Amino acid sequence: MTEDFTEEEKKGLYKAIYSRRDVRSHFTSRSIDDDILARILNAAHHAPSVGFSQPWNFILIKEMITKKKIKNSFEQEKSRSSKLIEEPKRSKYLSFKLEGILESPINLCVTYDPTKFGPFVIGRTSIPEAGLYSVCCAVQNLWLAARTEGIGLGWVSILSNDALKEVLELPEHVVPIAYLCLGYVDEFAQKPDLETAGWLPRLDLKDVVYFEKWQDTENTEWNQIQEMIKTNLDYA
């Protein structure tokens, strides 16, 4: 585990990062073997966490009755959120396929439990949200591990947390962070769906990196990396 990564291993990591997609469609009926699912969950469980608190739990779901209840919450929330935007963008938003709750063989809810290991967690006293960030790290680990196994994953955020807590019988103090759809897919898209649909553009790396302070993009101490960043060094 302490050896350097080989060039082939590095390419594999970057390939997973750049080809990962938020999958909402193209799920197949192929089931996920238990050993593969266990590997993916173990990768998530090895994410970094503030104070080594490991504040996540993973609720696996395959019963259709549960999925239909969650899908109902999605439909209600999508309809409600559509009222926040005007035409023609509203119709475009409503036309998007934004989840695969019923189509994916496995649904997974990742939760945050702030009470694990007691009230004092190293690193969380100044930034209480660090526990939530830790759970997001677990989700990212899970997402990349799924991609390397050829399994699609979609994060459904158009949901009511109150509905999730009720349907999944979560304790009051446990917070649902991510509701995920997992399954094999016919294909992984070349670009994110919303980029392809023209909903939003991908920002260039140079547009989101500053040097030493906010909005400083011309700091002369960083000339070399400024030029490299402008090339958008994606995995080829």
UniProtKB/TrEMBL annotation:
<protein>
    <submittedName>
        <fullName>Cob(II)yrinic acid a,c-diamide reductase</fullName>
    </submittedName>
</protein>
<keyword id="KW-0560">Oxidoreductase</keyword>
<keyword id="KW-0547">Nucleotide-binding</keyword>
<dbReference type="InterPro" id="IPR029479">
    <property type="entry name" value="Nitroreductase"/>
</dbReference>
<dbReference type="GO" id="GO:0016491">
    <property type="term" value="F:oxidoreductase activity"/>
</dbReference>
<keyword id="KW-0521">NADP</keyword>
<keyword id="KW-0288">FMN</keyword>
<dbReference type="GO" id="GO:0000166">
    <property type="term" value="F:nucleotide binding"/>
</dbReference>
<feature type="domain" description="Nitroreductase">
    <location>
        <begin position="17"/>
        <end position="184"/>
    </location>
</feature>
<dbReference type="InterPro" id="IPR012825">
    <property type="entry name" value="BluB"/>
</dbReference>
<dbReference type="InterPro" id="IPR000415">
    <property type="entry name" value="Nitroreductase-like"/>
</dbReference>
<dbReference type="InterPro" id="IPR050627">
    <property type="entry name" value="Nitroreductase/BluB"/>
</dbReference>
<dbReference type="Pfam" id="PF00881">
    <property type="entry name" value="Nitroreductase"/>
</dbReference>
<keyword id="KW-0520">NAD</keyword>
<keyword id="KW-0285">Flavoprotein</keyword>
